[in-house]
Amino acid sequence: MHSGFCFGVRRAIDLARDAAYGEENIYTYGALIHNPEYVRELEAENIFVVDDINQLHNSTVIIRSHGIRKQDYELLKKQGNTIIDATCPYVKRTHDIIEKANKEGYPVYIFGDRNHPEVLGIESYGDERTRIFAPGEDPGEIEHAKLCIISQTTQKISQLKELACIVLPHVQELRVFNTICLATSQRQKASIDLAKDSDLMLIVGGKTSANTKMLAQLCSEFCQSIHIERARELSGKEFEGKKRIGIAAGASTPSEHIIEVYNKILKINGDSVYATGISEIPLFKEES
Ligand code: SF4
After folding, report:
1. Domains delineated in the chain
2. Sign of the C-alpha dihedral, residues 129, 134, 135, 139?
3. Ligand 1, from 10, 154, 186, 212: best to mutate by most atoms within 8 Å of Cβ?
4. 23/283 Cα distance (integer angstroms)
5. In 3-state terms, what secondary structure has residue 101?
């Protein structure tokens, strides 16, 4: 399995911890990760979430791995904050691509969830021709002769291809950038492979995490799949009649939560020897 913190989330947390070391309080504009319990753990290290940008003045502010809207970045600077930009380099790449494509005369379609902060951030780097399409959404009439398509980093490649195939017959030139990050595609592929071989999949991660929800949806195409945040949500009933149980976890799921779920399965199974580290989980592959 490719699970546990992805590179971008791990980097953002490390940057926040480094910044918090010896400081009074530091703030993240929005939660650093989609995991309420971990957010509380970070609070104990003086790293606090602030959702209202108007409350951030003359402070040290971490920008999370999703990135933020260009105008919000400018506002944070204007309000006297010291900014530590932990925008994931894969997300930053999408900002650079959309800006460059617009400069070169290409309107840009963004494939992704229009309510997701990452997508709102990408959109803000585009011009007035930018449009966002959710999976399965029909782009309708296309009035441009040339176009560029990019994707939210956590989307499915098969659905990005679908959008490109729908658009292509209507334009003279189409540039499609595969901006789905490697961590996401590896994680999705590994989860699908495991789901194909399992009777039940447990997908561990925050209920609002886009990439965790996507994993749950993908796995459910192959076997029964349950999205949980913590082990305590499992009663044992889920395992009745199930022999092979797989675990997958989102990019912002702490290792401890994955180990806890694994140990709960062992406990329900009547085992008495538990895992103490992520590497002790059979076939577990943490991201490099
Ligand atoms: S899922 Fe990929 S793009 Fe998103 S933060 Fe992690 S490494 Fe970066």
Report:
1. 2-88 (3.40.50.11270), 90-180 (3.40.1010.20), 183-286 (3.40.1010.20)
2. negative
3. 154
4. 40
5. helix
pLDDT at 89: 93
Q: Which of 118, 123, 229, 287 is catalytic?
A: 118
Structure tokens at 209: 């995490």
pLDDT digits (tens, 9 = 90+) for 79-94: 999 999 999 999 999 9
- Quickly count: other Cβ atoms within 10 Å of residue 129's Cβ: 13
Q: How far apart are CA 95 and CA 183, in angstroms?
A: 18
**Distance between CA atoms of residues 9 and 32, nearest Å:** 8
* Residues having CB within 6 Å of any atom of ligand 1: 6-9, 65, 88, 90-91, 153-154, 181, 183-184, 211, 251
> Strand 2-3 and strand 285-286: pairing?
parallel
